[in-house]
Amino acid sequence: MNALNSLQTLAVSVRSVRKVYGDPQAGPVALKSIDLDIRDNEFFTLLGPSGCGKTTLLRMIAGFEFPTEGEILLYGENIAERPPFERPVNTVFQHYALFPHMTIAENLAFGLESHPMGKVLKKRQITERVREMLALVQMEKFASRKPTQLSGGQQQRVALARALAPHPKVLLLDEPLSALDLKLRQAMREELKTIQARTGITFIFVTHDQEEALTMSDRIAVLSEGEVQQVGRPEDIYERPRNRFVADFIGETNFIESTVTAVEAGMAWLSGPADQPLGAHPCTNVSVGDGLTLSVRPERLRLVHAATEHALPCRIDAQIYLGTDLQYRVSLRDGSLLTVRTPNSVEPDQRYAVGSQAGLLFDHGSASVLHD
User: Fold this and answer.
1) To 10 degrees, the CA torsion angle through 154, 160, 165, 170?
2) How far, in Å, CA of 342 to CA of 325, rounded?
3) Facing residues of 330 across strands?
4) Are 187 and 153 contacting, i.e. CB atoms less than 8 angstroms apart?
5) 360 and 352 in contact (C-beta within 8 Å)?
6) Where are the alpha helices (DSSP H) in 9-103?
7) pLDDT value of position 119
8) Which among 8, 54, 112, 226 is least surrounded, fewest beta carbons within 10 Å?
9) In what order do the strands lie in the sheet with 227-232?
10) DSSP assignment, residue 313?
């Protein structure tokens, strides 16, 4: 693929974008030289804790903020200094901002008429577009209702339809599910993913909810303190975290401290607490004696009744019933505390009793060597 064709497959490219509030030399830094590529027709999520810079980056793509340095390309064209109304993007906010005195159909029509694209449409075309968008979000029968007559989930659908009506090239979603209860959030995740696939519009979704990101996204960018920590598919982010922050922020994990005992052909042989062998793991640029941290998810650990030469000796400190799963808190000989999660499919008399001794095993391919 030549450079031109490669560029055309990118919806948004963020190039060395830096954002400083106030004095560019001394003001607080919101973003530290961000580089990011978001593909055409992709459901892309910006994920991170509060204050990490994800919403600032979204607002810069929308045009509500401007970068201190760097470029923002939309399908190859730099839009970093364009005002919002000159960008073919639209935004769905946390608060739906529907006009309470207008019907749902009128809310959509007004939003479309106010948009630069809507100004070239005839009234009949606007009416048809409103009908089309309400059908897309399954809200046709509510067209004549007022926003106060709708549930939170229904209002969210209307806000989504209003944002999609101008047919933006990119749709930005700033934590739009945060005001919904758990059941509605779960339902809307599936609906958003379905709508994105049906429209073919690139979605850029901001959230601090790891489960939302994992279940909805084609790819995820994890941010922390104004920097991108890792970009990848949900399974890559979860199964192969690059550093301690990503491993700890995405789901639950265990950290096992280890020492390199041998290096051969891109593999590092490790030993863990009490010099217990931990097998070989893909790793480069390490030497014998180096300390490394392994990340192992709780569901990747398993308990055995008798410690073997391949198992880490441990003591069962707690057993927690979680419905579908059982969770064990265990301690190793060096005092390290780990979490083990197993399916709740064994008989009660076969479970591990608190205070008992056991062995701990994990497949070496299920552990990630962290790069910090």
Assistant:
1) -170
2) 6
3) 316, 338
4) yes
5) no
6) 54-62
7) 66
8) 8
9) 89-92, 170-174, 202-207, 43-47, 219-224, 227-232
10) E
CB 350 within 8 A of CB 326: no
**C-alpha distance from residue 85 to each of 189, 221, 233 (Å):** 28, 27, 32
Phi/psi zone of residue 312: left (φ > 0), alpha (ψ -120 to 50 degrees), beta? beta
Confidence of residue 67 (pLDDT cuts 50, 70, 90): very high
pLDDT, residue 307, reads: 61
**Pairing, β 325-332 against β 312-321:** antiparallel
Report CA Rg, the chain: 25
Q: Pairing between strand 43-47 and 29-39?
A: unpaired
Q: Which residues of 171-204 are buried (b: 16+ CB within 10 A; e: fewer)?
A: bbbbbbbeebeeebbeebbeebbebbeeeebbbb
Place of tokens 């923002």: 72
Q: Once rounded to an integer, what is the mean pLDDT over residues 172-189?
A: 85
Q: What is the pLDDT of residues 215-261, one digit of tens each?
A: 999 999 999 999 999 999 999 999 999 999 999 999 899 999 999 99
Q: Give Cα 136 distance to the centre of its chain.
A: 25
Residue among 300, 321, 280 nearest 238 (CA): 300
pTM of the predicted protein model: 0.88
Q: Within 10 Å of residue 248's Cβ, how many Cβ atoms?
A: 14
Q: What 3-state class would DSSP assign to 263?
A: strand
Reduced to 3 DSSP states, what percent helix, strand and coil does the chain have, rounded to the nearest 5?
30, 35, 35
Token pair of 98, please?
């529907």
Query: Would you call 328 helix, strand, or coil by DSSP?
Result: strand
pLDDT given for residue 42 in this prediction: 96
Least confident of 35-49, 56-70, 113-127, 232-246: 113-127
User: Cβ neighbours of residue 369 under 8 Å, at least 6 residues apart?
Assistant: 268, 281, 282, 283, 292, 293, 294
One-letter amino acid for residue 80 of the chain: A
Coil, helix or strand at residue 147: helix
Arithmetic mean of pLDDT over the chain: 89
SS3 14: strand
Mean pLDDT of 88-114: 88
